[in-house]
Description:
The longest helix is centred in the first third of the chain and has 19 residues, at 2-20. By secondary structure, the chain is mostly beta strands. The strands form 2 sheets. It has a 16-stranded antiparallel β-barrel. It has a two-stranded antiparallel ribbon with strand order 11-12. 8% of the residues lie in helices and 51% in strands. The protein has 3 helices and 19 strands. It is found in: Cell outer membrane. GO terms for molecular function: porin activity. Keywords: Cell outer membrane, Ion transport, Membrane, Porin, Signal, Transmembrane, Transmembrane beta strand, Transport. Homotrimer. One of its GO terms (biological process) is monoatomic ion transport.
Amino acid sequence: MKLRIAAALMLSGIGTAAYAQSSVTLYGIVDTGIEYVSHANAAGDSVVRMPGITGSMPSRWGLRGTEALGGDIAAIFTLESGFNMRNGTLNQGGRLFGRQAWVGLNTPYGALTFGRQYTMTFWALSDADLLGPDIYGGTASFDQYLPSSRSDNTIVYKGSYAGFTLGATWSFGRDAAGTGNSPGQGTCAGPTAGSGPTCREWSAMLRYDRNGYGVAAAYDQQHGGPGAMANMFDGTASFAFTNPSDTDVRMQLNGYGHIGDLRLGGGWLGRRVDTVSSATPNVHSDQYYLTASYLVTPAFIVDGGVYHIVNSRNDTRGTIAALRTTYLLSKRTSLYAQGAYLWNSDKAAYTVSQGGGGTTPAPGAGQLGLMAGLRHSF
Length: 378
């Protein structure tokens, strides 16, 4: 009996020690409001709605955890689900954990993780575009892959050394579920036997951050495969992207810094879609942006940006000017009001809003977007 009691006490102690070295955190954001968009269809009609995808931030909930394994090594994981506030449905093509679903190890030499994860496009852009995934964030309005730059079946390495951050991803099949990561681009599950490049994606990043200033460069390459399409988001039709040798490349250079309470960010994003078939076009675009954020008071923030894109092949150009004000009711709850105006060239039909589709104007039409909303984080 004494041996049994002693063994039970030892097991209890081991369980307590293991529990003390691990943690799981529940977190999330709920964000919605009312939006007005002018010229929301080819007839020039406007729409007033509760947007489905994003407000100032996309709504989500998640679990993240860590367990110390000794020797400065820890097991880590994240499960993150995006949802539509207006009707409670799942985003990211209906996936339960469509935003993130990965597990890995964190070591003194960096983190190695496996699952559905962000590519380096996301991490390189995160500090330079100060509006980020806002409903009127111009980089995302011109290329809706950017706030959704995730891939399935992915191995990721990311490590920081003396201010430098190195990152790389490798996906064996980048988009395997639902309706795909981005509108009009289909899915691309891969791989297939005998064709390793099918639906492959890889990305790399190098950035340097020090004392509130930083610069970043990234390269992201997708290969074609069954079910894949390429969408330029300028009102032209998506086109086939099914050959494993087809490539969709996104490159970027950017930087950010501050002058007192004024933060600045800006950069260049280049996209190069090249296909093997002569029946489908090779389409290249270049996007430029400058953003700023100013802390007027500890509870009041004003930020905005100007974004411009040029697509020479399709003869489409667009410019977005956006402004947002945020009032912090507490550390977790805020009210915001924002607006943006989009200028389309004669053949372009970009849309100012990422609010869930259905707001594509006629080619050449300008668009005004206005929104007031409430955000709470937990």
